[in-house]
Amino acid sequence: MQNTPLVTVVCLCYNHEKYVVETLNSVINQTYKNIELIIVDDCSSDNSVFVIREWLKNHPEVPFIANSENQGNTKAFNKAFKISNGAFIIDLAADDVLMEYCVAMQINQFQNSTYNNVGIVYGGLELIDENNNSIGNFFEIYHTNTSGKDNRSGDIYKGLLNMQNNVCSVSSMVEREVYDRFSGYDESLAYEDYDLWIKTARYYNFDFIDTVLVKKRELSTSMTSYRSRRFNKKTWKLGYSTYKILLKALKLNQSREENRALLKRLHLEAEIAVRTGNFLLFLRYVWLEMRIRLMFLK
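Given the sequence above, the corresponding structure tokens read:
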């Protein structure tokens, strides 16, 4: 591995006119300098495109893709990935902010990891609101590990299934080989991260950096805010995507223990389906659980 391999940062923008300049500046102000920045605007309805074009006047070397219609995160990212050249990739939302040492620490972790075959390096992050006020630490708020062990590095596949591990995609750097292997993101999904984690964890190790690498902005329009809304089309779309991801995980599983871990996640998603009024999805989860339990009888 080169000492300073090229890192591609794909910055995805959708209605982020208030924040996109701060995000872009956080990329070009990295202490690590061998960075390729690609910007994609996914047909924003605010002034994001104008703001980006104004910023580009001082950075004409940066490629900019302005979609004429909204395509969603997975397709927008894949479009940028196809023209990228980096050996490592960062998927960055245009309302989040990289700490100036983020890329340098991630590259250092890849180069000096105690694990072989590392596919994703990720770290901690600070949650902030629309006014840059700190909300808290991601792993303190969304801590799901009850095992008493630090299982954030190495083979984390089962932990992703039974929710003993919660990777933060915002603070992740991904080996290009991973995206090449899976042909980018699955464009049939409404969101991308959980699917990528599971597929990657099946074949690669993860490595965690216990340092805040990114500031993640929590807004009322953020995707996480749609997780549990009742009778909401976007919420239901996210729910069906999770169901598809878990179906794919079942095919990746290699043991009864992993199937039992998957059942724990199924129970949570079934509860969410009921709370959000998506009873058809709930019935699909009931069917899927029966299918898995029948596998135990073989």
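The first helix runs from residue 20 to 28. Try to locate this feature in the token string yourself.
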